[in-house]
Design brief:
Elements (H helix, E strand, L loop, with lengths): L3 E7 L2 E6 L3 E6 L13 H14 L5 E6 L11 H5 L4 H19 L5 E5 L3 E2 L1 H8 L2 E5 L6 E2 L13 H9 L1 H10 L2 E2 L1 H7 L4 E3 L4 H11 L10 H7 L2 H19 L5 H15 L1 H16 L2 H18 L14 E4 L3 H12 L5 E4 L3 H20 L5 H8 L2 E4 L10 E4 L5 H14 L5 E4 L6 H4 L9 E6 L8 E6 L5 H13 L3 E6 L6 H17 L4 H11 L5 H8 L1 H15 L10 H5 L27 H6 L9 H22 L5 H12 L8 H8 L1 H15 L7 H8 L7
Parallel strand pairs: 3-4, 4-5, 5-7, 6-8, 7-10, 11-12, 11-14, 12-13, 14-15, 15-16, 17-18
Antiparallel strand pairs: 1-2, 2-3, 8-9, 16-17
Helix pairs in contact: 1-3, 3-12, 4-5, 5-6, 6-10, 6-11, 10-11, 11-12, 14-15, 20-26, 21-26, 26-28, 26-29, 29-30
Length: 714
């Protein structure tokens, strides 16, 4: 690289003119781990652009990041949170659009050299450049994820992305927030080249010296037929709208706004498209849906920075052991190797269990190889990190044991004894129990301070939550180490108190039980599930029973009832389901059909009504179905907070959203409670108590909140 001969520093932007006539614009935002775009940068960027226009010696420019880990990760979300009106946010969007338009209109070629995340406003910046080259690093991803915050790309993204990748691909990316890896981005036409990081800037310079060029992406015949005329585009937009409404049930306004922005740009030109984009962007920042999604973003960001116990550092975990090669054990092994980058030793009572666990990782990795996300060599290297045994050979150097055997107390206690006998003294024993109190599992342990709960949710490779359950004797070091390792596995951990059901299953049980009671009272199964999916849950409560396993629910309910009281009693009639071997999807026999012509799990198995002695004849409104189920969950969540089961309302909201799919746009049970008001919830619960029984009694903490006009978040 040529020696720099002129340097002008402007805030986060450093413009360096090279001897060959190519200027380097380095982005390095101070006091941020990743580059983020802020409104106050507008003047700085304008000054840089003015310098470029006034210096005839500059023949081209490359834009790159001064940070090793990211290009630009997006806009500063706190900046948007500070906007009090839609007009303020619209002005921010319009400012970004203006700057990127000026960048695009420069007479010299501008190349974005991308390494690391290039997301949101970062990708909008890159798309305003004339060419883009990406590093082949596995950290490099490109996307417009604004929809996940209830927003849309506000600095020209809805207008420029369709021009680069086509209408259908751009809709897919913006409506889902999907991120592309470098090779995918190259194939889609989003970048012009993919090169090793070591030559990224050199290649970018050569591209700039070669001058502007048109995209070489070739559209398929189908794409041309649909996207090159108004009728074809209308078909694409109509289908996108139907898909959005089917998925969101109308609960999220941003996706429909995105479609309208793209449509306006294609039909009326970019200027009008940008105007609509800025207008909708401003309006969306003020919606309750976006505010709740941003709350989730801020909460999870804060949680990533927190230790398990303040001031107590985590110990290193360089190798783990997994007890049990079932579905959970296989999933735990996968996230431990793939995400946490630690070797795993699996123990099972037979070789078939070990094979099952290995197959779990193989199937996921093989998909990645087929989709060219990873090489066969990388897959083999990863698979070699998972080994198995039917005894404890190879367990002498593990730092943490994660137990995933059957929910049987004596079996788990024997596992603790075996581990203490065969592993090093300071090994952590983490149980994946979903309901058994950890103090009981640790009751016979020689070192109970090393025993902790680490509850994953199925499927482990997809569900983001982990509950960390410390009993009275668990050491602070064990807590901090387990929290840190769960984060390495890609989980968002919440620390909860050791009591039956912990937090997630405890608030889920009343919700599911009430749905079951409504079935026994004659409400159709599919009507209940449809109502709660429309409310915002990913699946309805009855379908959830089929997915998780009706037998699992039958095992947990008696534990919760014995420990927590009569309100957790499950309907007796459900024993008939177990007697009929109706365990749900896994036995292809449950509330829904899994065999025969309608074997897709979507049609109700009508014979279940006869088995339960029920004649379906729904009389309840969708609102009543939802409120009866959800308000019991809210009531139990408040009780958990009052008992110290969870540390704060924030953890309770994140636990419910990430653990059971509580509607994100409602913010979690505590945010939802605040939006309704404690007095309203107390009144509704008392109303249902008069109609349906004592289990609707508002808990003392909730009544106190109502009396004092308190909220969960102040």
């Amino acid at each position: 690289m040529n020696m720099e001969n002129n340097t002008t520093k402007q805030s986060a932007f450093t413009l360096i003119e090279q001897d060959n006539g190519i200027a380097h614009l380095k982005i390095d935002v101070a006091d941020e781990t990743m580059n983020v775009l802020k409104a106050e940068f507008l003047e700085d960027i304008q000054e840089v652009l003015q310098q470029l226009k006034s210096n005839s010696n500059i023949k081209g420019m490359i834009v790159y990041s001064g940070k090793e880990n990211s290009f630009v990760a997006g806009a500063d979300i706190t900046m948007l949170d500070a906007c009090n009106t839609a007009e303020e946010a619209t002005a921010i969007a319009a400012g970004g659009q203006m700057i990127f338009n000026q960048l695009e209109q420069l007479n010299i070629p501008v190349v974005a050299a991308i390494n690391g995340p290039c997301l949101g406003g970062g990708l909008e910046l890159a798309m305003a450049c004339h060419m883009r080259v990406a590093s082949d690093s596995n950290k490099t991803v490109l996307g417009l994820p604004e929809v996940q915050l209830g927003l849309l790309p506000g600095s020209g993204g809805t207008q420029r992305l369709p021009k680069l990748v086509g209408l259908q691909k751009s809709l897919d990316m913006m409506l889902t927030g999907k991120q592309l890896r470098p090779k995918q981005a190259l194939k889609a036409g989003l970048v012009d080249d993919v090169v090793p990081l070591s030559v990224l800037l050199d290649v970018a310079e050569k591209m700039a010296l070669a001058g502007k060029k048109k995209s070489s992406r070739k559209a398929s015949l189908v794409e041309k037929a649909l996207e090159s005329n108004p009728l074809g585009r209308r078909i694409v937009f109509d289908q996108a709208t139907k898909t959005v409404l089917a998925k969101t049930k109308g609960n999220y306004p941003a996706p429909l706004n995105i479609i309208e922005c793209i449509r306006t740009g294609l039909e009326k030109g970019m200027a009008k498209g940008l105007a609509v984009e800025a207008k909708y962007f401003g309006e969306l920042t003020q919606t309750k849906e976006s505010k709740q999604l941003r709350n989730i973003f801020f909460a999870t960001t804060d949680m990533k920075k927190e230790q398990g116990v303040d001031g107590v550092d985590a110990l290193p975990v360089n190798k783990i052991g997994v007890l049990g090669g079932g579905l959970m054990g296989g999933g735990i092994a996968y996230v431990s190797v793939n995400n946490a980058k630690t070797p795993v030793r699996i123990k099972d009572i037979n070789h078939q269990g070990i094979s099952n666990a290995l197959k779990y990782s193989f199937d996921i990795l093989n998909k990645k190889v087929k989709r060219r996300f990873m090489s066969s060599a990388a897959m083999q290297q990863q698979m070699h990190k998972i080994t198995g045994t039917v005894d404890y050979t190879g367990f002498n150097d593990v730092d943490m044991i994660i137990e995933a055997v059957f929910e049987d107390l004596s079996l788990k206690q024997s596992m603790v004894a075996d581990v203490e006998e065969n592993c090093k003294d300071d090994v952590i024993f983490a149980s994946n129990t979903s309901s058994l109190p950890i103090n009981q599992i640790a009751a016979k342990a020689k070192k109970p301070e090393n025993v902790i709960g680490l509850h994953y949710f199925s499927p482990v490779d997809k569900m983001p939550l982990a509950e960390i359950i410390a009993h009275e004797k668990t050491s602070d070091s064990t807590i901090s180490t387990t929290v840190a390792y769960a984060k390495r596995q890609g989980k968002t951990p919440i620390v909860v108190k050791d009591k039956a059901g912990f937090y997630v299953n405890r608030i889920l049980a009343p919700y599911v039980n009430e749905a079951a009671s409504m079935v026994l009272a004659g409400e159709p199964i599919d009507k209940i599930d449809r109502a709660l999916v429309k409310f915002g849950f990913p699946v309805g409560p009855i379908k959830l029973l089929d997915e998780v396993g009706i037998d699992i629910g039958a095992k947990i309910s008696p534990i919760l009832e014995a420990e927590l009281g009569e309100r957790f009693k499950a309907p007796d009639a459900f024993n008939k389901l177990i007697d009929d071997n109706r365990k749900g999807k896994k036995t292809e026999k449950g509330f829904y059909l899994y065999k025969g012509k309608k074997a897709n799990g979507k049609a109700v198995d009508e014979s279940v009504y006869t088995l339960l002695g029920v004649q379906p004849n729904g009389t309840l409104s969708a609102d009543d179905i939802c409120h009866r189920s959800v308000l019991l969950m809210v009531n139990e969540a408040v009780r958990c907070l009052d008992e110290g089961i969870i540390r704060n309302a924030r953890d309770g909201d994140i636990g419910a959203i990430f653990g059971i799919g509580f509607p994100p746009f409602l913010g979690g049970p505590f945010r939802y409670l605040d939006s309704l008001g404690a007095q309203t919830v107390v009144d509704k619960l008392n109303h249902y108590k008069d109609l349906y029984g004592e289990h609707f009694t508002p808990c003392t903490a909730l009544v106190t909140m109502a009396e004092n006009n308190q909220s969960c978040y102040g």
